[in-house]
Amino acid sequence: MQYGNIDGIDKPISRLVHGTIMLTSEEEEWSFKLLDAVYENGITAFDTGHIYGGGDPERIMGRWMKERGNRDRVVLLGKGAHHNADRRRVTRFDVTADLHDSLARFQVDYIDIYVLHRDDPSVPVGPIVEVLNDHIQAGKIGKIGGSNWSHERIQEANAYAKANGLQPFAVSSPNFSLAEQAEPPWSECITISGPENAGVRTWYEKSQMPLFTWSSIANGFFSGRLTRANFEEVKDQFDESSIRAYCTPDNFNRLDRVEELAADKGLTVPQVALAYVLNQPLNIFALVGARSPEECNANLEILALDLTQEEMDWLDLRT
Prior knowledge:
Low-confidence stretches: none
Protein name: NADP-dependent oxidoreductase domain-containing protein
Order of helices and strands: EEEHEHEHEHEHEHEHHHHEHH
CATH architecture: Alpha-Beta Barrel
Number of helices: 12
Strand order of the largest sheet: 8-7-6-5-4-3-10-9
CATH topology: TIM Barrel
Keywords: Oxidoreductase
Structural class: alpha/beta
InterPro entries: AKR_Detox_Biosynth (IPR050523), NAD(P)_OxRdtase_dom_sf (IPR036812), NADP_OxRdtase_dom (IPR023210)
Pfam family, one: Aldo_ket_red
Organism: marine metagenome
Largest sheet: 8 strands, parallel
Distance between the termini: 32 Å
CATH class: Alpha Beta
C-alpha cells in the first residue's frame, strides 16, 4: 500500500480509500468480512456519507471499529449537508445535525476529515467556514473540506479563513476519472475530468491540495462489464444517469484504448482506468468500491504500475 499525509492528521492515509455505501446491516457478516479484508491489505481510509443507506453504512463502520478496536488507526472521511427534495441544507443547523448523527452512528467522538457533500453558492462562505471551525474547536472534526465544491468556492472559503484566523478547507472531493462526463450523473456534482477542466487540474497540481476523487472507474463504465460490442445487451445493468453521463462516442473511444492497453500489459480494464487516475501529477487519494477481497487485491496490484505520459495522453485521446 502507498500512503500519504495531511498536516494535522497523525495517521498514514492510504492512497486507496474504501467506499462504504455497499455496507448493510442485512449482510453484516459479509460487511465485516469485506472491511477486514480491505483493512488487512493496508487500506486505512474509509469514505462515508450521512445520506448513504439511511445511515446503515456508518452504523456498520461504527460497530466494526468497536469490535476490532482499531479506531485510532482508521481515517474516517465523513460527508454531510447533502440537499434533499425539500430544501437546501448547507446551513449551520444541518451541518451540525448531520455531524452529530454521524458521530453517534460511528460511536466515536471525532471524524478525521469532514467534508460538505454539496455546496450552495447562494450561501456566503463565511458562516459555513465558521460552523465547521466551531466543530474543529470542539474536537469533533480534524480537517474540513468540500465534496462537489468548485475550486473557486474553495479559494473563497480559504481566503475568508485566512482573513479571520480560522482553519481552511484542507481537502477537496470532486469526481475524477479517465471518462469525460457529458452531464452530471447526479445533481450539482463537480468533476475535474475532461479537457474543459484542464485549468482546474492545473490549479490542483500547483496547490497540491489533497483530492479524494470519486467514481474512479466512471461509475462502472470502466468496470470491464461494458464494451462497445455488448452495450445494448448490458446497458440495463447500469443506472440511467450513468449511461447519460458516460456513454458517449469519445468515452467509448477511451474504453477501446483502455482495453487495448490492458491486453498489452496483462491487466484488467478497471486496473488500467484506476492507474490513469493514480498516475496524475495530483495529490490524489482515489475512492474505490471493492465488493470482494479479490477486487481489493486487483486494485492494490496497480499501485506500483507507472504509466508513461505518452500512454496517458493516448488513453485520453490527446494523441
